[in-house]
Amino acid sequence: MNTTAAQSSPTGEAGPLSTARTGDIHLWTRTLIPTTREAPADATTPSHVYLVRAGFIRQLAAGVYDYLPLAWRSLRKIQEIVRQEHERIGAMEMLFPAMEPVSLLKQTGRDKAYGDDLFTLQDRHGRDIALAPTHEEPIVEMMKGAITSYKQLPLSLYQIQTKFRDEPRPRSGLLRCREFIMKDAYSFHLNQQGEGGLDVAYDHFYDAYTRIFTRCGLTFTAVEAESGPIGGSASHEFMVHAESGEDKVLVCPASGYAANVEKAEIGERAWSFDGEAAQELKKHHTPNMPGIEGVAQHLGTNAAGMLKTIVFERVLSDPSKTKYVLAVVRGDHDVNEGKVRDAVGSGVKLADEAQAKADGLAIGYVSPSAFAKLTGATIVVDPDAAQGGTAWATGADEMDHHVTGWHWGRDLGYEVERLKVADIRNAEAGDPSPRAVGSTLQVQRGIEVGHIFKLGTKYSDAMEFKVLAEDQKPRAVTMGCYGIGVSRTMAACVEMSHDENGIVWPAAVAPYHVEIILMKAEDEKQKKIASELAQKLAERGADVLIDDRNERPGPKFKDADLIGIPVRLTLGDKALDAGGVEFKLRKDTGKGEVVAFDSVIDRCISALETA
Predict the structure, then answer these.
(1) CB 224 within 8 A of CB 2
(2) Is there a common fold for 39-97+134-264+444-495 and 512-609?
(3) Which CATH superfamily hosts domain 512-609?
(4) Category of 288 on φ-ψ map: left (φ > 0), alpha (ψ -120 to 50) or beta
(5) What is the model's pLDDT at position 244?
(6) Are the C-beta atoms of 41 and 560 separated by less than 8 Å?
(7) How far apart are CA 230 and CA 360, in angstroms?
(8) CA distances from 166 to 32, 62, 103 (A)
(9) Are strands 392-395 and 247-251 parallel, antiparallel or unpaired?
(10) Strands 544-547, 25-27: parallel, antiparallel or unpaired by DSSP?
(11) Cα(227)–Cα(237) distance, rounded to whole angstroms?
């Protein structure tokens, strides 16, 4: 759960260059690099702007992109790093179809969990097919026919595959797509703990992810996370630090604790229901009020002076037996469904509005007083809302009405003794740290590039995947799931590493390591020297792009900055007459320096291996 920004390879390899291969040499005029000066009108993030302008991607439809040659070279390098680190921990690669029968998803309930995000179609026989968002169900179905005994476990499999999700508002280029490249891995175990157990594999994948994102040149943090529609008992997200990131991460600078908003805990907060009522209870007519801020202003208070009561219902095997859970937070806070679930010890979901209204709950105007009228209900109160000395404004349990002066002791009476106080809201910056007394949580922006889960037996139980254990009795297989957004990782590299002129690629994932610019594309001497330099660099494992366009130097330099190749060598008369070439690192500002022919190759390789 710490932050890392190391660039050197922890696998013993020579940084971003592999001495086991000869680098590629390509001419600009023989590849497709359609750079442009204008960004798309809807581009708001650096990766969207620069990947389009630099000729890496082109939009085909909303949330669907072509990967042009430069992008595909970077994606292949990311994939190769992923493959190396998965092979290192014993995971084996395979490939599943992109389509999967909806009937498989129905076995686990994920046809409904994904809802409208699931792309579906029918074949000519009327069978429902889904374009796979992930592959938990297909791999369990496959494993059921292949694994029968505990002796065949543990086993880890992975694939790199195109995935599909029907995002309602695709945006930010590759960061929120409807079609994207993803690596997903799955591990299978007889037990969670001990040798060969899920906990061991989870740690191996955690370490592999740390190495993968480190080798990609990313600065990131692994944070505790909610499992979402995948499910499971524990999970971590790997978040790249970027100001443009969509995700918020709460961190404690004193302890290193980090978690996303859905998972972040809050430290101890004082609370008490004691205290005398300071105001009389008064009802107010509040029709057509624009949200809680508007209601608060009308009532002469603010959102922090109001109580917000969200109505959930327990997830029961018999849905006809509805049992309500009232979750009460301060009006300026947001209820956290996962924390409510943990507080009551069972699954919860937002109550069906029509049924709740039929049971006498005025949804949108519910107060804690409604608890006294509900049979078998539970009420959970966040500590910040559990303040008996405060005269609260809240709903009046009547459509278009609120009350002021509401008091826990007076208006709920003896029912106060049945209240449960627990952390049930989203954490915010400034909240007390759960790991270091006296420290407060701080917010960082991040981009999620990886997510690992301890699934347990969620999918095995639903799909009846069992093997014979040592006692010759069938037992449900324990699973783990591990995902990396490959195309998203490429975009995250740009979000983290760019300047006002374009992309600044980390060397390990750059489409080329060195760009050679010919100031005079038709000059035979310059072409010969460029070819010799490129060949020597390629022999050392470097990929080389030669800009041989018959174009003015200015546009060539602008394009070089835009596409972001780590090292630039410029062949011009002045440098050549001095017995060398101009050497410049993309990450450095200012002019380059002339480096002699006999040392420029070593200079390039050294710069790349430490980049």
Answers:
(1) no
(2) no
(3) Anticodon-binding domain (3.40.50.800)
(4) left
(5) 84
(6) no
(7) 34
(8) 30, 10, 19
(9) unpaired
(10) parallel
(11) 9
Token readout for 72 is 């595909």
Q: Name 609's bridge partners.
A: none
Per-residue pLDDT tens for 400-447? 999 999 999 899 876 777 899 999 999 999 999 999 999 999 999 999
Q: How far apart are CA 239 and CA 593, in angstroms?
A: 37
Q: Give mean pLDDT, residues 578-600.
A: 94
Mean pLDDT of the chain, nearest integer: 93
Q: Residue 142: CB partners within 8 Å, gap ≥ 6? A: 96
Least confident of 3-12, 71-80, 257-266, 290-299: 3-12
Amino acid identity for residue 391 in this structure: A
Q: What is the pTM of this model?
A: 0.87
In this structure, the dihedral spanned by the alpha carbons of residues 524, 526, 531 and 536, taken in order and rounded to 10 degrees, is: 140
Right CATH for 39-97+134-264+444-495 from 3.30.930.10, 3.10.129.10, 3.30.1780.10, 3.40.50.300: 3.30.930.10
d(CA 212, CA 565): 21
Query: Nearest-CA neighbor of 86 among 226, 205, 262?
Result: 205
Distances in Å between the Cα of 405 and the Cα atoms of 285, 289, 329 are 15, 19, 17
Phi-psi category of 438—alpha, beta or left, where left has phi over 0 and alpha has psi -120 to 50?
Answer: left
Contact indicator for 339, 325 with CB cutoff of 8 Å: no
Read off the tokens for 20.
């086991």
DSSP letters, 531-591, are: HHHHHHHHHTT--EEEE--S--HHHHHHHHHHHT-SEEEEE-HHHHHTTEEEEEETTS-S-
CA distance 78 to 215: 9
Phi/psi of residue 371, each to 5°? -60, -40
Helix (H, G, I), strand (E, B) or coil at 335: strand
The answer to whether the bond into 154 is cis (omega within 30° of 0) is yes
**CATH fold of 282-421, please?**
YbaK protein (3.90.960)
Query: Within a 13 Å sphere around the CA of 36, how many CA atoms are in the beta-carbon half?
Result: 13
Encode 42-68: b = buried (16+ Cβ within 10 Å), e = exposed.
Answer: ebebbbbbbbbbbbbbebeeebebebb
pLDDT of 2 over the 50 cut: no
The residues, ordered by sequence, that sit 6+ positions from 281 with a Cβ below 8 Å of its Cβ are 403, 404, 405, 406, 407, 410, 411
> What is d(CA 220, CA 258) in angstroms, rounded to the nearest whole number?
11
**What span, in angstroms and rounded, lies between the C-alpha atoms of 374 and 326?**
10
315: left (phi over 0), alpha (psi -120 to 50) or beta: beta
Q: Which long-range contacts (CB under 8 A, 24 or more apart) does 116-122 make?
A: 116/166, 116/168, 117/165, 117/166, 117/167, 117/168, 118/165, 118/166, 119/164, 119/165, 119/166, 119/178
> Tell me, what's the pLDDT at 589?
85
Residue 406 to residue 123: CA distance in whole angstroms: 59
Tens digit of each residue's pLDDT (9 = 90 or more) over 531-544: 999 999 999 999 99
- 261 and 448 Cβ atoms separated by less than 8 Å: no
Domain extents for the chain?
39-97+134-264+444-495, 282-421, 512-609
Give which of 562, 604, 557 is closest to 580, Cα–Cα. 604
